[in-house]
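Throughout our pipeline, every protein is held as a single compact record rather than as scattered files. Nothing more is needed to write down the fold, since each code stands for a local backbone conformation. For reference, a complete record is included directly beneath this paragraph.
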Amino acid sequence: MSANAKLLYCRCAYAQVVPQTVKDDVLAKLCESGASFESVADLCEMAAHRDPRLKAFAGNGPLRIAACYPRVVQGLFTQCGAPLLEDAEILNMRAQTAEEVGAAMLRDA
């Protein structure tokens, strides 16, 4: 993953499958770091509405995403005709700790 990766944080606001404390802690780490990142309410909702921002995210260079299961996130982007590039890194806030996700998101930032 490139040092200039774009950071994308999904709040997973509607499905509520990611523990609230993990979401809050990862967001706090991103905000405190001073790193530039994009926050969205819910990637699933964006995919359901075929939000054109998904294509912009997918086609805008290296991408690091904090969301849920990698296969799900890849599927959401593919469903919208915006498959992620191979160098996209997806961090799983459902299975990883906030410390793990935060450190990986901010690696090389």
User: Anything to note?
Assistant: The mean pLDDT is 93. Helices lie at 20-33, 43-48, 53-58, 70-79, 98-106.
